[in-house]
Amino acid sequence: MTEQPSSHTPIERLIIVCCHAIWLGGPSNGHDEAEWAIESFQKGETPTFIEHIKAGLQKLSDEPNSLLVFSGLALAHANNYFSYPVNPTHITHDPYATESYQNILIPLIQLHSLTSRPPTHISIISQDFKRQRFLCLHIPAICYPSDRVTFVGIDPPEEVTPRRKLEEAERERGFGMWVRDMYGWGEYLRGVRRARGWRKESEGKLLGSLKEDVMEEVKRFMKWKGGDSGTEPYPGKLPWSKENF
Questions:
Q1: What are phi and psi of 172, to 5 degrees?
Q2: How confident is the model at residue 4 (pLDDT cuts 50, 70, 90)?
Q3: Distance CA 210, CA 224 (A)
Q4: Distance of alpha carbon 210 from alpha carbon 212, whole angstroms
Q5: What H or E segment, with its residue span, contains residue 172?
Q6: Interatomic CA distance for residues 185 and 58, integer angstroms
Q7: Beta strand pairing status for 22-23 and 36-37?
Q8: Predicted confidence band at 3 (pLDDT cuts at 50, 70, 90)?
Q9: Is the pLDDT of residue 74 over 80?
Q10: What is the rounded radius of gyration, in angstroms, for the C-alpha atoms of the chain?
Q11: Residues 66, 33: contact at Cβ < 8 Å?
Q12: 121, 153, 170, 178: which is deepest, by most CB within 10 A?
């Protein structure tokens, strides 16, 4: 029998599960697609979303000195964490993120609020066709060292959604948009955030538990628009910049 992790295990690493749909609740605990709020193009993909959650729980089981952050907390809890031997106090919910850039930035802030330190390593779990978006755009934009990042990609089966369709959509509305607007201040990406509920007051709630000096650093960063081109890296330092390791 696998031993349960100690509740006193310090948090040093970060695991992020980028959830892509909302489970509304129901008797099947997510195994019936009717219990999900999904877009029409996501039909048949909810088992893959559950696999993302399981992969995060497996990672936490393997690395108990991690904080696991995801939006699917209710589903994981309803399924008794799918029987993975994990410490529930090392699992938390991100109620703020509205897109993939925020999927990384917000858990970084949440972990720093808890530990006052940057994570020594980040594991990102998402759809594999988004790999380049996360590793080539979001991680450099956020100024976290790329050699301290692992990406776990899980796509829906080919018979559910062909890889060709996923890559085409990513070129048009994913990587193709972010490569020109790395901090998401352009009309299209700002519109995505607004449509999904991001408001100025969300930032205040998110940053409220940081130490004052760190809060000011992160506030300055969150106002950075990527310079005239929208793609210039942030010129300042952050609590998780390379110099802090």
A1: -85, -45
A2: very low
A3: 19
A4: 6
A5: helix 163-173
A6: 35
A7: antiparallel
A8: very low
A9: no
A10: 18
A11: no
A12: 178
Q: Looking at residue 180, what is its pLDDT?
A: 97
Which are the contacts of 159, defined by CB distance < 8 A and separation ≥ 6? Answer: none
Place of tokens 């790999």: 131
Here the tokens at position 105 are 């930035």
Strand 122-126 relative to strand 149-153: parallel, antiparallel, unpaired? parallel
Residues 6+ apart with CB under 8 A from 151: 123, 124, 126, 131, 134, 135
Q: Count helices and strands (H / E) in the chain.
A: 10, 7
Provide, rounded to the nearest whole percent, the portion of the chain with pLDDT above 70. 96
For tokens 């410490």, the residue is 87
Return the structure tokens found at 159: 């018979």
Chain centroid to Cα 166, Å, comes to: 19
Query: Which residues is 15 bridged to in the sheet?
Result: 68, 123
pTM for this one? 0.93
Provide the sign of the torsion angle of the four alpha carbons 171, 242, 150, 4, taken in this order: negative
CA distance 210 to 180: 31
